[in-house]
Structures are given as C-alpha cells and as structure tokens.
Design brief:
The protein has about 325 residues and is α/β, with parallel strands linked by helices. Helix content is about 45%, strand content about 15%. A seven-stranded mixed beta sheet has the order 3-2-1-4-9-6-10, with helices on both faces. Strands 5-11-7-8 form a four-stranded mixed beta sheet.
C-alpha cells in the first residue's frame, strides 16, 4: 500500500479495529508481523504498540515503521515494564484508544490475510451490549516460518467452568467487541494476573458473554526459544502443566482471578457466582465434601488427561 492510500485511510478519527500490540525485545520478527497487519483484507485498523524493552532496538524498528505508514495508523508508547500481561492490559484500559473492536497482537507472529475480517464477521452478529470474544486455532511455524503443525482443536464449548481452570484461546488470536473491552476496563489494568488472554476468557464468560473458537487458523504462530508462551500440545508441554498443577499453580491463579472478579462482581451471572462460591468454599472442606463440592461446580478441562490432572489437584486441594 502506498503512502497516498495510507493517508486516505487516516481521515476517520475512530477505526473499526484497534490492534493492541505489546512488544519486548522483539525486533527480530517484528517487521514480518507488522507487514501482515498492513496486508489485512480488512483495512480499517490502527495499531497501538506499547514497548516494554529495556533498550531502543525494538522501539527504533517501530519508529521507522511509523514513519513509513504514518502516526495516525501506528501509535507508539512506552510500556509499564511490569510484564507482558500488564503491558496488554495497559493498552486495553487506555481510554483514548477508541474502536468498534480490539485485537491483541504479539510481536513475532504472521497474521493470515483474512484474520480480522473473519473475526469481525462473527463479532458483528452479536448484539452490541453482549460481551463477545473471538479466538481461533493457530498454525505452528518454526523460526523460518515453516509449518510444523496446528494447535489443538478443542471439542467442548467455551464456558466459565472451563475458563477458571484452563485458557483455550491464545491471546494472539483474540479479537473482542466494545462490551468485552468495557468489562476489562472496569476491572482495571492494575491486576497481578497470570496472563491477559486467560483473564479475558474468564471475565467474558463470567459475565455472560459469548466466545467463539474458530477451528480455522487465523495466524502463523512462530515457535522459537524466546517465546514467553509457546505451543501447548507437546508431551513436554502437557507434563509441564501437570507439574504446575501439582505445585499449586492453579491455586495461586484462582486466588488472583477471584480477587480480580470482585471488581466486576455485579455483572457476573448468578450461575457463575455459584461456581465461584462453591469453589472458594471447597478449599476449606475435608476431602469427601471437597470433592463433592468440586463436582457440583462443573469445572473441567478440555481433555481426559487434563481432567485427570484436575481431579488430582482437587484431591490434594491445589485448585
């Protein structure tokens, strides 16, 4: 796209999609990601990049790209330097970022050309007052962008009872509407959460929103040694998750999520408030009553192995 066409795109003060990009020492693959956003078949977007890097290498790449496409299309700011989740939430909760839809964006992927168009095709069908979240599978690629597989295809529907114990949507695929963004803003940016995408799945389902997991991959998810969170379908990844369950990772995560959900408690559905209360109470119960209480909540993961690990965690009171 030439400079004239970019200029024509900047006449509107509000874009259809705000692309929220959090960067951290990401100069190596950043240009390819930015190019894939520019190449989107849906052209009404703006990029808001927040850089947490400790040096100027990534910032300089962003600055040069901004000079190419214009400051109205690529907005730059320094991040809070409190981790990737805080960086993304700082963008979500920034009131001057206005759009109809919002898309999380990592620094090292390659978006399929119809990523935004497919997401918004589904989101546009949901009433504006209903929080809605789109996510999808990913095409796994190596450092040279060669395909090496696909992310898992989950069969159980997305719901709060699953969200409390598992994130099934990668943040790099997530696009959500203004109603979902309003929930995130109400909860606030200053939350000590594990991950922004897991929190987004939790708060949208918890408050009665809709989630769609597209079985068709929307991006090429690059796997490399510096991934903060990589593929989750390998034997190593599964064993890592089981070890984390055993060490009480889910217990700590739920403490943080329950505290954060207090900020939107009035918007949580009665059914999901029941799950929260039962799960919280179960932690103080003796074994037999605790297992019955966990069963009443309906909490579950997407696979049999995952549910086996979840049962073990409940058995030893690590949820």
């Amino acid at each position: 796209m030439d400079k004239l066409n970019f200029a024509m795109k900047t006449t509107k003060s509000r874009s259809q999609v705000a692309v929220l990009m959090a960067t951290y020492h990401g100069s190596r693959f950043l240009l390819e990601q930015l190019d894939s956003i520019v190449a989107q078949s849906l052209t009404d977007w703006t990029i808001w990049a927040s850089d947490d890097s400790e040096d100027d290498t990534t910032w300089n790449v962003l600055k040069q790209y901004q000079e190419r496409i214009g400051g109205a299309l690529l907005h730059l700011q320094k991040g809070p330097q409190k981790g990737f989740a805080a960086n993304f939430l700082s963008l979500v909760c920034q009131s001057n970022i206005e759009a109809d839809y919002f898309a999380y964006c990592d620094q090292d992927d390659v978006w399929e050309v119809d990523k935004l168009k497919r997401a918004i095709r589904w989101l546009a069908e949901i009433p504006e007052n209903v929080p809605a979240l789109y996510c999808s599978r990913t095409r796994l690629v190596d450092e040279q962008n060669n395909e090496i597989g696909l992310s898992p295809l989950f069969s159980k529907p997305p719901r709060f009872a699953n969200a409390l114990v598992q994130n099934i949507g990668g943040g790099n695929t997530m696009v959500f509407n203004q109603a979902a963004r309003s929930l995130l803003m109400q909860a606030g940016a200053e939350l000590p959460l594990v991950a922004h995408d897991w929190w987004t799945y939790i708060v949208v389902t918890g408050c009665g929103g809709q989630v769609h997991c597209d079985p068709k991959p929307s991006l090429r998810y690059r796997q490399h040694p510096l991934n903060l969170i990589g593929r989750n379908d390998s034997s190593f990844a599964r064993m890592t998750r089981l070890k984390m369950l055993w060490k009480g990772h889910l217990l700590v995560s739920n403490d943080k999520h329950f505290a954060a959900l207090e900020r939107v408690k009035k918007l949580i559905t009665p059914e999901n408030l029941y799950i929260i209360n039962e799960l919280s109470s179960a932690r103080t119960m003796r074994l037999a009553r605790r297992l019955k209480a966990f069963r009443r909540t309906g909490i579950h993961r997407q696979t049999s192995l995952g549910n086996l690990g979840l049962f073990a965690a409940a058995l030893f009171n690590k949820i």
